[in-house]
Design brief:
The protein has two domains: about 220 residues, Aldehyde Dehydrogenase, Chain A, domain 1 (3-Layer(aba) Sandwich); about 180 residues, 3-Layer(aba) Sandwich (Aldehyde Dehydrogenase, Chain A, domain 2), CATH 3.40.309.10. The chain is about 35% helix and about 20% strand. It is built from 14 helices and 24 strands. Strands 17-18-19-16-15-20-21 form a seven-stranded mixed sheet, sandwiched between helices. Strand 7 and strand 8 form a beta hairpin. Helix 4 packs parallel to helix 5, helix 9 packs parallel to helix 10 and helix 13 packs parallel to helix 14.
């Protein structure tokens, strides 16, 4: 049954259309809980089908576009985002309560613009295709576009991870694929504004009309049907673990690549020498990282591992004092608030001691008191599954262990995580312990840090924003770091005895740009 309630249009095949929907929804200002007076559609399957068909047609064009054309589109879009930054920041601030400055205007928006420009440069360079040429056997291979990509954006990064502007979007487009963007329900108007800008960029640079499309929400059934559709090449997903695993199961059944960022507690180990050397400053570092953005980072340091002792107790007291005194930030939505309260209940029911916070704050905003929980290493080892419950938000769990050896056993019981950090004495007193801790930790995380909190994710070609399951659905790929992130949305293709004129330009004898690295007879070269 459909409804004719007025709702915002969706972007389908280059046109903004108002559809008969299976329902509508609105977002709320999390700082006031007031409804934002815009209704957005829950798209029916007929709209999803139209989007898939348009993306399929667009792929017939995009996979053969000259790299310079794709790069020009990405650069034009980046410019429009920069020029529209005041409006984008205002809309995103209202929908997420994230600070206009420095968070949105000075950090996240420039990062988003930079990602698109870096992607454009990778397209022009063409080295991302990893061309390999065996001249004697006349066998050549490279990566080519995979097919339309559905990108599901998260709630906590309305710009840099948005399905229609973020890292997955940039990587998929740069690899030559159309994108079907599924907006996050927490910030649909922000996504809509990006859609308006990207539509202008497509038109200005002569892109196929179905290259980028935008829908806001579907039913669970239609979302699963979308993921399973053979016209779709791959899925990029960042969000809740439960919903992600549901969609992943559907993709797995049909053999569809599904690249998901799902869950991470990001263990931090502070070794005894580091605590002796600079315990007071580490309190400040840890609290700053843990409460940054109200803790709503996928790299938030949610699990702290320490060895018992008087200085550990003093450190914990310092953290508790600062968590108690610091005003709690506003959470992104009522669903984030509800999920955080539920996770804290799971942890305390399992035996975690609540040292401060632990409950929803009264008042007309989405907020939970800054929370510090404490357990022993022995408790963790008895029930590692429960004590790895992700408390997404302004909450941390501190596990006080009997020894460094017990810390290692705790690490060995961990699931996969995005990051893991080790703080050690800079004068070397922890050097005897470091190797065993690092050896255990590096196999549980995608990024190993030393003496640095994990909440910053640099847009660097060397960055791995990934990790073993359930941090992500595949340990060999990254969601941040071009050109590596582009390979998720590409297909390795081999050309055996194919004539020069029929080969992709990157595999012909002449270097297509003079700057493209190619492996020729076992040697990476610009020749």
């Amino acid at each position: 049954m459909t409804t004719t309630n007025p709702s915002q249009p969706v972007l389908v095949d280059g046109q903004w259309i108002t559809e008969d929907t299976s329902g509508v929804f609105s977002s709320k200002d999390p700082s006031t809980l007031e409804a934002i007076p815009l209704s957005f559609p829950v798209s029916s399957w007929s709209t999803c089908d139209r989007v898939l068909e348009a993306a399929h047609r667009a792929f017939q064009i995009s996979r053969n576009l000259e790299p310079a054309k794709i790069a020009a589109f990405l650069e034009d879009y980046a410019t429009r985002i920069h020029e529209d930054r005041e409006e984008l920041v205002a809309i995103a601030h209202r929908e997420t309560a994230l600070p206009k400055s420095p968070r949105l205007m000075d950090v996240e928006l420039p990062r988003t613009v930079n990602q698109l420009k870096v992607a454009a440069q990778a397209v022009r360079d063409q080295s991302w295709q990893m061309p390999v040429i065996d001249r004697k056997a006349n066998i050549r291979s490279c990566y080519i576009p995979l097919g339309p990509v559905a990108v599901f954006g998260p709630n906590n990064f309305p710009f840099a991870f948005n399905g229609i502007s973020g890292g997955d979007f940039a990587a998929a487009i740069a690899a030559g694929n159309p994108v079907i963007a599924k907006a996050n329900s927490s910030h649909p108007a922000t996504s809509q504004r990006f859609g308006q800008l990207v539509a202008k960029s497509m038109q200005a640079t002569g892109m196929p009309s179905g290259l980028v499309q935008l829908i806001y929400r579907t039913s669970h059934e239609d979302g699963e049907r979308l993921v399973a559709d053979p016209r779709l090449g791959a899925v990029g997903y960042t969000g809740a673990r439960g919903a992600g695993l549901q969609l992943k199961a559907v993709a797995d059944r049909v053999g569809k690549p599904f690249y998901a960022e799902l869950s991470s507690v990001n263990p931090v180990v502070i070794l005894p020498g580091a605590l002796d050397q600079r315990g007071d400053s580490l309190v400040d570092e840890y609290v700053t990282s843990g409460l940054m953005g109200a803790g709503q980072f996928c790299t938030n340091p949610g699990l702290l591992l320490m060895v018992q002792g008087p200085k550990t107790d003093a450190f914990i007291q310092g953290v508790v004092s600062k968590y108690t005194q610091t005003p709690a930030g506003t959470l992104l939505s009522e669903s984030v608030e509800k999920s955080l309260v539920k996770s804290l209940s799971v942890l305390t029911d399992a035996g975690a001691q609540c040292l401060t916070g632990g409950s929803k704050l009264l008042g007309s905003r989405c907020a939970v008191a800054n929370t510090v929980l404490r357990i022993t290493g022995g408790q963790f080892l008895k029930d590692p599954h429960v004590f790895q419950t992700e408390a997404f938000g302004n909450a941390v769990l501190i596990a006080v262990c009997d020894s460094v050896e017990q810390i290692v056993r705790v690490i060995e019981s961990l699931e996969g995580n995005l990051t893991g950090c080790i703080y050690s004495d800079t004068q070397g007193s922890d050097d005897g312990h470091y190797p065993q801790v690092a050896d255990a930790l590096q196999h549980r995380v995608g990024r190993l840090l030393n003496d640095k909190m994990p909440t910053g994710v640099a847009v660097s070609p060397a960055m791995n924003h990934g990790g073993p399951y359930p941090a992500t659905s595949h340990p060999g790929f990254t969601a941040v770091g071009i050109p590596a992130s582009m390979l998720r949305f590409a297909k390795l293709t081999c050309y055996d005895a194919v004539r020069q004129s029929r080969l992709p330009s990157v595999l012909r004898d002449t270097n297509p740009t003079g700057k493209t690295y190619r492996c020729i007879d076992g040697v990476w070269t610009l020749d």
